[in-house]
Amino acid sequence: MEQTKASSLGDTIALVGQSFLGTPYVEKTLEVGDTETLVVNFGGLDCTTFVENVLAFSLMLQNQQTTFESFTENLETVRYRNGKLDGYPSRLHYFTEWIRNNEKKGLVKDITAELGGVALEKPINFMGTHRNLYPFLVSDENFEAMLTVEKELAKEELCYLPQDQIESKEHLIKSGDILALATSIKGLDVTHTGIAIHQPDGRLHLLHASSKNGEVEISELPLADYLKNIKSNIGIIVARPNLISF
């Protein structure tokens, strides 16, 4: 693992991310059992767990940690609100809250506004309005807690970089930056996430767990072109890791 460390944090994150290339895409890997547990699954990743695993390993490299316990502590820190697993609603289900909460922890910084991002006015309430899609929301307690989370989210301003501006700004996005795909789908903030990676073609691509191709891969098309093929995509949110865990 020590060989993975690169000269810059962003390059380290991109290298760690590439070590997962070919890992199968599996959805809903965290929806197991009757109660929320810290799920560790290297055999199958969805887009969010891919990003979380990469950050947890990158934190280990940065802090010179070597134990599995260190990894699970890092994973809990990244995945849950304020770094503590306290039931299903404590998981950062909405990726914009994931970014915001991990910014509070000192792990990432949302740089979308600096890149020329614009405000997105929309209520984020997909879970509350699609209760039947989430097995854990059968519980009234979990459902009420998620409604409270959504009320808090409504107070926050969302900012995204519109799709037609990405190509002109891609030189400002670094390999290792976390990219979230903003969407026009009602009630949702983000449909997909991955890691920015500059390729030999001189363009910015997406390193991600792809549901379409069924594994962790680097997008064949540059990010700006890749997004044009996603009907509901409106642009991206960019979070730059700095990984100074509290």
Describe the structure.
The protein is of the alpha+beta class and 246 residues long. It is built from eight helices and eight strands, in the order ααααββααβαββββαβ. Strands 1, 2, 3, 4, 5, 6, 7 and 8 form an eight-stranded antiparallel beta sheet that branches. α1 (9-18) crosses α2 (47-62). The longest helix has 16 residues, at 47-62. The two termini are 23 Å apart.
Mean pLDDT: 94
Uncertain stretches of 5 or more adjacent residues = none
Helix content: 25-40%
- What's the order of the H and E elements? HHHHEEHHEHEEEEHE
- By secondary-structure content and strand pairing, the structural class works out as alpha+beta
How would you summarize what this structure contains?
This protein is an alpha+beta fold and 246 residues long. It has helices at 9-18, 47-62, 68-79, 95-104, 126-129, 140-153, 166-169, 223-228; strands spanning 108-110, 118-120, 158-162, 178-183, 190-198, 204-210, 215-218, 233-241.
Chain-wise SSE layout:
Elements: H1 9-18, H2 47-62, H3 68-79, H4 95-104, E1 108-110, E2 118-120, H5 126-129, H6 140-153, E3 158-162, H7 166-169, E4 178-183, E5 190-198, E6 204-210, E7 215-218, H8 223-228, E8 233-241
Antiparallel strand pairs: 1-8, 2-3, 3-8, 4-5, 4-8, 5-6, 6-7
Helix pairs in contact: 1-2, 2-3
Keywords:
alpha+beta, 8 helices, single chain, 246 residues, 19% strand, 8 strands, 31% helix, eight-stranded antiparallel beta sheet
